[in-house]
Specification:
single chain; 359 residues; alpha/beta; D-Maltodextrin-Binding Protein, domain 2; 40% helix
């Protein structure tokens, strides 16, 4: 959902190169996850320590063919079309829910994922909001959406989404280039659910976002990181993992989950129903759940880990005790996960977002 994003062109290119993978009854890729074959992995850009891929290949003997996507909405049609048969994919919560509803996922065999015991039960419970019974998804990373602000460029502590709609910051606001996140912010600020299905509320949020449009310096996702580090804007919407990175680079930056509430998200590993190497995919997920591997990934991508065993291994005090990486229960209590709202409402949100962006 977030992450230091790679170009979607890379994902499309990789997809075209892999078309037809896993076809044919004599394909060696169908061998069990016990030291042979291949696993086709589809993940967000820069969302793994590349050394982990090498370790997986060395430890299992399974070759990894690795591709990246930029947004959930780019990934979904690739999986739905089935032309490229990926074995393991890392979507976000609401997209997992959509894939389950559309019968695109295979149930996990937890006999092949014993390291699931390292995942904190609270995150498995949270995942049941979009994956009842944890049948299809194993949490990989999680985080919040908030505001990153430069303390030298604002004249007050920021604690509300209202700062993003304040004319005094005109030209200094970096707004997120994401349909659900943008509407989630507007709806939450207005006092509505970020999963609103009420067209009147959605229209009100649309008007708020339209009024913000002249104030916005740029609509961004990964670019917010470099712009905020370089002091090019006063405020930016950012995911918590990237906030940790930016604060390391620029100590003037502060991150806040606004008082009105926000989104808490979970990305997790799933296996498409048409995969050709299911046991190899489960071997991949099992390794991702191992505490040393989860720690490596956490230290590389700086997104919060649901792996309780890995968290115990964190040595750096300012990260181990970081309220950005691991916010208080009080902060989490005012956050909500996105839900898949159905195709009709999904299209409505996209239509309204286009009204904002192309006014």
């Amino acid at each position: 959902m977030k992450k230091f994003l790679a170009s979607v062109c890379t994902a499309v290119l990789c997809a075209s190169l892999l078309s037809g993978c896993g076809s044919g009854s004599n394909n060696n890729d169908t061998q069990e996850g016990s030291g042979s074959g291949t696993v086709y992995v589809y993940n967000w850009g820069e969302y793994i320590d590349e050394n982990v891929i090498d370790m997986f290949e060395e430890e299992t003997g399974i070759k990894v063919v690795y591709s990246e996507f930029e947004q959930n909405e780019d990934m979904y049609p690739v999986i739905e079309a089935g032309a490229v048969q990926y074995d393991v994919v890392c979507p976000s919560d609401y997209m997992v829910q959509k894939m389950i509803q559309n019968d695109l996922l295979a149930e996990l065999n937890y006999d092949n994922i014993p390291n699931i015991t390292n995942i904190d039960s609270s995150y498995l419970k949270s995942a049941e909001d979009f994956d009842p019974g944890n049948q299809y998804c194993v949490p990989y990373c999680w985080g919040t959406v908030g505001i990153l602000y430069n303390t030298t460029m604002v004249d007050e502590p920021i604690d509300s989404w209202g700062a993003l709609f304040d004319e005094k910051y005109s030209g200094d606001i970096l707004m997120i280039e994401s349909v659900r996140d943008a509407f989630g912010i507007a709806l939450t600020y207005l006092g509505y659910s970020l999963n609103s299905t009420d067209e009147t509320e959605i229209d009100e949020a649309t008007e708020l976002l339209r009024s913000q449009y002249p104030l916005v310096q740029a609509y961004v996702v990964d670019q917010v990181r470099d712009k905020m580090i370089g002091g090019e804007a006063a405020l930016g919407v950012i995911y918590s993992g990237e906030a940790i990175y930016t604060q390391r680079e620029n100590p003037d930056l502060e991150y806040v989950v606004p008082k009105e509430g926000s989104n808490v998200w979970i990305d997790g590993w799933v296996i498409p129903k048409n995969c050709q190497n299911k046991e190899n995919a489960e071997a991949w997920i099992n390794l991702m759940c191992r505490e040393d591997i989860a720690l490596m990934n956490f230290e590389y991508i700086t997104y919060s880990t649901p792996n309780k065993a890995a968290r115990e291994l964190i040595e750096e005090p300012d990260i181990k005790n970081s309220t950005v990486a691991f916010p208080s229960q009080e902060v989490l209590d005012r956050c909500r996960t996105y839900q898949y709202l159905g195709e009709e409402l999904e299209n409505l949100y996209i239509e309204k977002w286009n009204e904002v962006k192309f006014q």
